[in-house]
């Protein structure tokens, strides 16, 4: 069951019991709920007609009051909406409660504080006055164990920490050091060893996730949509009724079925009867069961979306539907013989029905349930829509993740996008068996996000907006940059690497940032 949170909240605001609001909000927006009849409400909630009529009256009264409030205004001013106001308003979700202890458990899940070597190294750090992160201490611990040592003496622990201190000092970048060139070389050289490979998505047939060099190119080019967008959707511990959710495979599969976009062609065979000028839909019961849908529900959704009268072989459990272009109500069937639909209308209706989405979230092509750690289940998807997925009840928004960096930026902000760039590049390089220092990845992500938006490293992003004219022209479209700079009288201060190489003079970085003078002794 996939419950629309906003719809459920509005129903509860009308003093409707939570149990009934929960059932009515199952995959329904408020516009879909408020037009339900008392009989439909009784069928959905499994209640008597009296209670259903009371709920119907509450919703009807709410709709009437809103219309009355709109009609009571003395003066009506008609203004043309701007393009910005015509855009769909973003739904504001309540902030999730931040629990520092739970967050630290997630961050430190790979840190074993009780390890004897870890404890000795931590004690040695305090004695030496050196501050190392838990991740650094864990890496040192694993390094010691890889050498076959199961325990160390306090004296040896001090030597390890002293060695770590000197290594940290040597690894720091000196002032005026060309860290950008170092980063480019450190990523570019291993990148030549990467293959044009893909990764088969576990448990999902015929789907390959882009990896290797193509994925690195996608990231640094800041593609709006990756070739294979995916999501990992985690669920909350308990559902709205207080029952376990993330460990209940059946409930998780129900949510997955609701998230997966379902089109008419997924659940029915669409046949065009050219001679009779109508469309015939033969429903597949097996497919509808997988999508957690019924024939009556399909007919109702098609009827509302197309605004046409749909004939069915059975009102309760229809197996075949008949749709005629232009027939909006049953009375129109009488005039069909004198005014039949055109062949063009029939083809247009067929195309519309094939593309019509009946259920789920646009962009989520497939949702597959996977078993995680500690008996937990999560949902892997092909396709991504972070904003819409986060609106569903039961989704743990703090852990749900997508590989679409621009989607993360638009929904969570630039800081989250920066971290996503680091994560995606690190995972891709590790998957190819390459070891690149994370500081180089930090440099790339900082450059890409320093302007408050995700910019590509190319002529339409970082390289194309450099302050140096010669640096821009040396990258691409040389004549255009030089001509434009000459027209507007732009100056180049020659402060970077590229522009100094172009004019053939020493670079003012590294050793070039220091001038040496020899002053001989007058004596």
Structure description:
- With 523 residues, the chain is an alpha+beta fold.
- Among the domains are: 5-69; 100-171; 265-359, Gyrase A, domain 2; 466-513, DNA polymerase, domain 1 (Orthogonal Bundle).
- Helices cover 46% and strands 9% of the residues.
- It has 24 helices and 12 strands.
- It has helices at residues 5-13, 18-24, 30-33, 38-45, 49-71, 83-86, 100-107, 116-128, 134-146, 154-171, 179-191, 212-220, 249-259, 264-267, 285-290, 295-306, 343-355, 386-389, 405-412, 414-431, 438-449, 469-475, 478-488, 497-503; strands at 198-200, 208-210, 230-233, 262-263, 268-273, 278-283, 310-312, 320-323, 357-359, 366-371, 377-382, 401-402.
- A 4-stranded antiparallel β-sheet has the order 10-11-3-12. Strands 5-6-8-7 form a 4-stranded antiparallel β-sheet.
- A hairpin with a 5-residue loop joins strand 10 and strand 11.
- The longest helix is centred in the first third of the chain and has 23 residues, at 49-71.
- It is extended, with a radius of gyration of 32 Å.
- The termini are far apart.
- Residues 73-78 have low confidence and may be disordered.
């Amino acid at each position: 069951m996939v419950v629309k949170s906003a719809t459920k909240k509005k129903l509860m605001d009308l003093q409707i019991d939570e149990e009934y609001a929960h059932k009515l909000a199952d995959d329904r927006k408020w516009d879909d709920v408020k037009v339900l009849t008392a009989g439909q409400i009784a069928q959905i909630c499994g209640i008597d007609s009296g209670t259903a009529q009371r709920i119907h009256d509450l919703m009807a009264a709410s709709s009437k009051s809103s219309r009355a409030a709109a009609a009571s205004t003395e003066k009506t001013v008609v203004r043309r909406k701007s393009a910005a106001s015509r855009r769909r308003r973003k739904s504001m979700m309540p902030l999730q409660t931040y629990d520092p202890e739970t967050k630290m458990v997630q961050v430190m899940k790979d840190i074993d504080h009780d390890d004897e070597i870890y404890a000795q190294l931590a004690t040695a750090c305090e004695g030496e006055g050196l501050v190392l992160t838990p991740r650094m201490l864990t890496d040192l611990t694993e390094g010691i164990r890889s050498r076959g040592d199961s325990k160390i003496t306090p004296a040896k622990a001090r030597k390890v920490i002293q060695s770590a201190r000197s290594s940290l000092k040597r690894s720091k970048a000196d002032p005026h050091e060309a860290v950008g060139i170092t980063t480019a070389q450190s990523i570019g050289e291993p990148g030549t060893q990467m293959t044009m490979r893909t990764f088969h998505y576990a448990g999902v047939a015929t789907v390959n996730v882009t990896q290797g060099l193509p994925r690195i190119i996608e990231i640094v080019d800041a593609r709006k949509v990756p070739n294979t967008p995916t999501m990992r959707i985690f669920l909350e511990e308990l559902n709205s009724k207080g029952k376990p959710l993330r460990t209940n495979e059946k409930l998780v599969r129900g949510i997955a079925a609701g998230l997966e976009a379902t089109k008419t062609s997924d659940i029915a065979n669409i046949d065009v009867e050219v001679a009779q000028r109508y469309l015939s839909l033969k429903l597949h019961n097996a497919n509808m069961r997988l999508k957690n849908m019924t024939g009556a529900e399909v007919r109702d959704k098609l009827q509302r979306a197309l605004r046409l009268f749909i004939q069915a072989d059975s009102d309760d459990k229809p197996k075949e539907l008949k749709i005629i272009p232009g027939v909006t109500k049953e009375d129109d069937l009488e005039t069909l013989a004198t005014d039949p639909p055109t062949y063009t209308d029939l083809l247009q209706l067929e195309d519309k029905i094939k593309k019509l989405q009946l259920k789920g979230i646009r962009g989520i092509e497939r949702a597959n349930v996977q078993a995680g750690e500690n008996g937990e289940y999560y949902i892997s998807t092909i396709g991504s829509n972070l904003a819409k997925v986060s609106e569903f009840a039961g989704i743990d928004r703090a852990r749900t993740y997508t590989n679409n960096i621009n989607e993360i930026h638009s929904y969570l902000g630039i800081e989250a996008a920066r971290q996503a760039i680091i994560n995606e590049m690190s995972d891709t390089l590790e998957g190819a068996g390459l070891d690149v220092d994370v500081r180089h990845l930090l440099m790339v992500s900082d450059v890409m996000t320093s302007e408050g938006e995700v910019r590509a490293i190319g002529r339409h992003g970082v390289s194309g907006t450099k302050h140096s004219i010669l640096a821009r022209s040396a990258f691409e479209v040389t004549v255009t940059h030089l001509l434009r700079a000459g027209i507007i009288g732009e100056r180049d201060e020659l402060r970077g690497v590229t522009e100094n190489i172009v004019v053939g003079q020493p670079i003012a970085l590294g050793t070039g940032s220091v001038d040496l003078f020899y002053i001989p002794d007058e004596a």
